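ugh ok so i messed up the first submission bc i forgot one of the chains. this is the corrected input, ALL of the components this time, i swear. 625 residues overall. if the numbers dont match what u have on ur side tell me asap before i send this to the collaborators (the ones from the other lab, u know who)
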Amino acid sequence: MAVTTIAKPHRGLARFLHRLRHGRDSAQRQFVFGSVSPMVLYMTFFTLFPMIWGLALAFFEYSARRSGGPILGLGGDNPFVGLQHFRNMLNFAPDAPLEIRQFHISIKTTTIFAFLIVPLNLAITLPLAVLIESVHKRLKGIFRTFFFLPVLAPSVGVALMWGWIYHPQRGLLNAIRTAIGGKLVATNWTGDQSLTFLGIPVALLAVIVAYLWQDMGYNLVIFIAALQGIPESIKDAARIDGANWWQMFTRVNLPLLKPTIMLASVLTMIDSFKVFDIIQVMTEGGPNEQTRVLVLDIYNNAFRFQRMGWAAAVSFVLFVVVMAISIVQARLLRTEWEY
Amino acid sequence: MTSATLTKPSLMHRMRYRINLAYFILIPASIVAALPFLWMILGSFKSGREIRKIPPTFFPEEYTLENYQTIFQEEDLPLDLFYRNSAIIAIANVVQVLFTSSLFGYIFAKFEFRGKALLFWFIMATMIIPSQVMMIPGYLILARLKLINKLWGLIVPAAIDAFGIFLFRQFSLSIPNELLDAARVDGASEFRIFRSIVLHQLRPALATFGMLTFMFNWNAYLWPLIVLTEQKVRTLPIILTWYSNMHADQMHLTMAASVLVVLPVLLVFLFTQRWIVHGITLTGLK
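and heres the new structure output, hopefully the right one now
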């Protein structure tokens, strides 16, 4: 008896709460379902589907100009070639077809590009960040903005600006050299294939300088923020121990910045493997393919020569490279640093 | 630090020395860094005759606005149209990306539903895939949807930004559940809660990520180059390279055109760079 008298209002309350919560639950469920299901449909069509299509294309001899088979134009005039594209990539014979040799050139060029960009970028941005961090607070912001400015400019504009610096007759660089040497020089920085420096084509170095100029602002602000995150107490301790600025840099700043430097290097490297804008505008891959990079190779093959199957295979290689760097990054960053 | 420097004059001396050295490097470095901008701006004020001089002059012998007048009168180059194209695409994408990123970021942070982990994992995985890998199938899809050479072609496939969802999920996690429950008790609908409370809490992140998205869209080159092949729908970066190729021998004109394309937006970004820098340092995003 006692149980029912106590349980009755309880049950009523429970039912009330349940209804309230259930109503709530279904409102929340509606909200989530109503938002997530269109997203899933959208991503299936605009993300998952093109991923699969792009991968499939790499196994066909495909051109959008030919109508091909019933499913996505694959098959028929756009025949299935299996792993042929990937096998062709390993054809290192000197008489291999042009697009294969161009692919080899672009792999090599992109690798040189990326492996030069990262150390050069760090060699400039790290000391620059420390220097900017050391000046008066008000000027700090001004300097940071100043070096960050090129990041905000469209890369097309950057490419044109550097084109006018490198111009053989009317460029600023040759003008400065003429003024210093007193003798007219007209070096064709981005167009003379015979020029090399330490075995690297000068044209490639020229685009590297332009790319560095635009790109370094990113790492600079990241490093400045990281330096500001180093506790004052550690810096004070080092100073009281009589550390000079070089010891401060190598023994305090660099070790404490290590995780940030790792992350920044990986991001910079991934980005430089995807370089396109500056090179397409400045050199179009020339002279004599000396600045031909992977994305330029993909773009030219797919959209200028309609070799979309081959271009899809090359994009797959780019994907694998970026993926590999990301995995290395995940490995490196798994270690936890603390201070 | 101040007390330490005050009690140790030698230390203060060393600090002073280091700071002086810093200016000694920073000021010349800034000048070098500014040279490409300066060269372009100065060149845009030189006459066609002066620009052909060998060796070239640094400062114009005579400042002229002729180049700008020529560009504004050029019928092939309706700059207002290209500004409009760029602005439509950039603004539309900022609006939709901010909406979807905050909505789904919030949902991933605060709700449980079947398949959530898998879906989130998939979205994160798409971040590693270079956009260049998607451009061939992306083009073929747009061609079938008849969206090539349409501004819509740059808007329709750009509604979801994986990184944005990730970012707003992180920010939404810190919104107190009590706040959301209080609104529920008050009878607010779920969408109303998102609109009035969540978006309000996410405002700083919306401003930062909005600026980054705008900048990214405004400066984009490769994808618009593929999708927009007709002159009238093109965006500023593509028009600039087209114009520069047309007038390869008239550097004074291309320099003035570049000033018109690069500088206005650079000024806007300059005033908002605090947010952009904040966004980059916060996220490591490029």
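quick check: The beta strands of chain A are 196-197, 200-201. that seems consistent at least. Confidence is low (pLDDT under 50) at residues 1-9 of chain A.
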